[in-house]
Write a structure and sequence with these properties.
The protein is mostly helical. It has helices at about 5-35, 40-65, 80-110, 120-150, 150-180, 185-210, 220-230, 265-280, and strands at about 235-245, 250-260, 285-295. The chain contains eight helices and three strands; from the N terminus they run αααααααββαβ. About 40% of the residues are buried.
Length: about 300
């Protein structure tokens, strides 16, 4: 898929996420107040952050798909990974604030049992709406991030599915609180925050790997080696080095060919390896092939 199409997918998905997350902010605030649920109201903060972060993904996601220029001869892909890191940090900060808020509520409840209001059916409605919307957004975003090879969309998909699970847990806490066990609502809220924080740390870890030129996975490297060996004229693969550049991969590969071949003949084999790897691996942005003289195996 070319850069233009990838950018179009990012635009469509992020605009969709912005609209529905904005809807969730108002739904959670309104029904959280009507439902007397502090946990639901706190989760509106997460939806508000989702709106802000998704807007940044829309802007930077489009920018990262710009063609290479004189200032950025290797392209702009790393900008998107940087945004994903920022998204992870925001999630961790938000999670920390929600954890402390939940702990304060539990401490207050010990001395004042009226510190936590008993939620009602409106809180359950808010949770149900959230699960339906977030599940739909996850399905659409998950399919799209693979097509667009976008780490930011992947982070967004993780955030959507996390919201589905944490909202389900939140509903359990609200349900128990409705039955009279009020302490379970802030406990559920703390659990929600812990999951949000964990996902934030995971996103940070993966995105840092894309920024600091971490190697591609062993499975990808083995697949590249196998494909190179399938090219006629390649005797051995002597060395493969890979590095992540945002969501793309740069490959440096050394192959051995018959040492008695002419320079032109060796170059033709190298070009075949280059073309085979770049055509068969969509996430490989560039492949550099070095040719070593070798001895053909005796038949």
């Amino acid at each position: 898929m070319n850069i233009k199409k990838e950018g179009k997918i990012i635009t469509q998905i992020t605009i969709l996420a912005i609209i529905f997350n904005a809807i969730l902010v108002f739904v959670k605030i309104a029904l959280g107040i009507l439902g007397k649920s502090g946990a639901i109201q706190n989760s509106a903060i997460d939806s508000g952050l989702d709106v802000a972060v998704t807007i940044s993904i829309l802007v930077v996601g489009r920018y990262s798909r710009k063609k290479a220029d004189k200032s950025h001869p290797y392209g702009h892909e790393k900008f998107e990974s940087i945004v994903a890191i920022v998204l992870g940090i925001i999630l961790v900060v938000a999670a920390t604030q929600l954890i402390f808020s939940g702990i304060e509520m539990i401490i207050s409840f010990q001395s004042n049992t009226d510190a936590i209001l008993k939620p009602n059916f409106y809180a359950l409605i808010a949770g149900g709406i959230t699960i339906i919307i977030k599940l739909g957004l996850f399905i659409v975003t998950h399919r799209s991030y693979k097509k667009a090879m976008s780490p930011a969309l992947r982070a967004l998909a993780v955030d959507h599915i996390s919201d589905v699970f944490v909202t389900a847990v939140l509903l359990i806490g609200v349900g128990l609180a409705m039955s009279g066990v009020l302490i379970f609502e802030p406990i559920a809220g703390i659990f929600v925050a812990l999951v949000i924080g964990y996902n934030g740390l995971s996103i940070i870890k993966d995105s840092i790997g894309q920024v600091v030129d971490e190697a591609a996975s062993k499975e990808v490297v083995r697949a590249i080696e196998k494909r190179a060996m399938q090219v006629e004229g390649v005797l051995t693969v002597d060395l493969i080095k890979t590095r992540m550049f945002g969501y793309k991969i740069y490959v440096d590969i050394e192959i051995s060919v018959d040492g008695t071949l002419t320079v032109d003949e060796g170059h033709i084999i190298a070009e075949r390896v280059h073309d085979a790897i770049e055509e068969d691996f969509n996430d490989v942005k560039h492949c550099m092939v070095h040719v070593n003289p070798g001895k053909p195996k005796m038949k």
